């Protein structure tokens, strides 16, 4: 049996600054072994443990989509030991990846439905994966109206700016970006995500809501969605509890009797309401 702790070797193809504060970088990795690439089947919402040899490993949401074969993309905020080591890695370096881990957004259930995707901060990574997946020409017809509400503290902290600009030009996605406070040069919407969601007031009819972001954003957005008529079974969240093994072995990520790494990180609000409120 394959050792689940053994990372696959990958090459760092690109490492670039994503945000103006230089705290978030985006990493593009390619598989070194063709066989690993063929076996690494993932879906939007899953994560992987990225290992910097000699420093340790940390979980990150996969920002690329399975519709973009041959590479894995992660956007990583520098906060501590592993993330700082990652930020300092040169292109061409070898690192390790364990995954794909966790469950994923229930895209089969989303088929034929409208979607409202609501994201904040670096948690937008797995939402980028989902949006890219849905917008792929092979998949777009399987889903209804796509609305994306994406917020950041200031314009410089918005991720994937080139893609946001490209999405804005398309007529099969409604993109609403917002920042917390007025900023020089920003002509778009200003306001916190829960308030903007209430203003946009997406119809709950035949619609799923997907929410991913910092706990405070989730806390205030969920009641708005319920007020708009979204039932808890059609509100889908992704949790980012602290993790170590990522495979249900170490007990680091539990909420009640659930392992966020193995049973999640994706849970509907209906599922979360069955768990103790410690997530
Ligand atoms: C499923 C999942 C997906 C994630 N996706 C991303 C992603 O796409 N991009 C990204 O930048 N980060 C993501 N994270 C968070 C990332 O895993 C942590 O930032 C990383 O583990 C920090 O490692 P470090 O060694 O640099 O920090 P450490 O040296 O271990 O810690 C530095 C500081 O950060 C705090 N910290 C570390 N991890 C967490 C956490 N999960 N929650 C709250 N505080 C924490 C520590 O308490 C400490 O204060 C994700 C986490 C999970 C569980
Ligand atoms: S991270 Fe080890 S049990 Fe979930």
Report on this structure:
With 279 residues, this protein is of the alpha/beta class. The protein is 24% helix and 30% strand. The strands form three sheets. A seven-stranded mixed sheet has the order 10-9-8-7-11-12-15, sandwiched between helices. Helix 6 packs parallel to helix 7 (215-227). The longest helix has 13 residues, at 215-227. The chain is globular, with a radius of gyration of 18 Å. The model has no long low-confidence stretch (mean pLDDT 95). Bound molecules: flavin-adenine dinucleotide and FE2/S2 (inorganic) cluster (FES). The site of flavin-adenine dinucleotide (FAD) has 21 residues, from strand 4, strand 5 and helix 2.
Count of DSSP helices? Answer: 9
Query: Averaging pLDDT over every residue, what do you get?
Result: 95
- Measured between the Cα atoms of the first and last residue, the distance is 33 Å
Give me the strand/helix succession.
Answer: EEHEEEHEHEHEHEEHEHEEEHEH
What Rg do the Cα atoms give?
18 Å
Report the strand count.
15
Ligand set:
flavin-adenine dinucleotide, FE2/S2 (inorganic) cluster
Strand count, sense and barrel status of the largest sheet are: 7 strands, mixed
Q: What is the percentage of strand-forming residues? A: 25-35%
- Estimate the global geometry from the Cα principal axes: globular
Percent range of helical residues: 10-25%
Strand arrangement, largest sheet? 10-9-8-7-11-12-15
pLDDT < 50 runs, ≥5 residues: none
| SSE class | alpha/beta
